[in-house]
Amino acid sequence: MHTPAAVTLLPVNGAPEHSKLLAGIAALELMPGQAAFVGEPWPMAQKALADPHRHLFAVTAGTAAACTIAAPATAETSGGAGRAVVGMGILHVNAGRDAGWADNDSAILLRGFLIDRRAQGLGYGTAATEAAVGLAQGIAAELDLPAEGVVLGVNEDNAAGLRAYAHAGFADHGRYLGGRSGPQRIMYRTFHTP
Ligand SMILES: CC(C)(COP(=O)(O)OP(=O)(O)OC[C@H]1O[C@@H](n2cnc3c(N)ncnc32)[C@H](O)[C@@H]1OP(=O)(O)O)[C@@H](O)C(=O)NCCC(=O)NCCS
Description:
Layout lengths: L7 E4 L6 H9 L8 H4 L2 H9 L4 E8 L13 H4 L5 E9 L14 E9 L8 H20 L5 E7 L3 H9 L3 E6 L7 E7 L4
Parallel strand pairs: 4-5
Antiparallel strand pairs: 1-2, 2-3, 3-4, 5-7, 6-7
Coenzyme A binds next to α2, β4, α5, β5 and α6.
Protein name: GNAT superfamily N-acetyltransferase
Organism: Arthrobacter stackebrandtii
């Protein structure tokens, strides 16, 4: 695997570069068949923008590889010199049960997480998952939530997702059959300890 520059997660709501981040997210593309694992990027982003419990973030990176992504997602539209939007995700509070977790509030749900097809396999997914734990921890502190970690559901056939999450320190907490896209693994990681 390549060693990419560190990713930066930028919350979309309230960001000075809000519209530029949205333009980058609108340009994200999946590989054929991958929408079954996650859904289409733009509709998920729109749904998050309309729901105060869903905290939408852009995954940005600054390597040359990232900047080969199509024009709308290049540095000019991604809100930072030399940085490109390479992915997105949503931290959904009070929604753990959506992924088969035992309750809604002891973990923040990471959903709608994806890396653009042109930037996959470069380590961004692993780095962004790790960074999402820190972002979720900040949200929990800011909103005074009882959450102590991050939970997610990943399709059992999603090899890249399973590996990225395991590399980022997520542990398997069993199977969930309630999702709309086939059997899922429930994966969880506690927040960073100070
Ligand atoms: C899952 C996803 C976010 C991973 O992002 P990524 O940037 O490609 O991940 P990384 O580059 O950090 O690679 C993570 C691991 O997956 C492996 N991997 C990458 N693409 C793979 C593929 N198509 N098949 C199998 N393994 C793959 C990598 O080799 C790496 O494992 P290794 O370090 O042990 O070799 C990305 O593939 C994606 O957006 N997929 C479509 C949407 C999706 O499935 N989202 C998750 C929903 S839960």
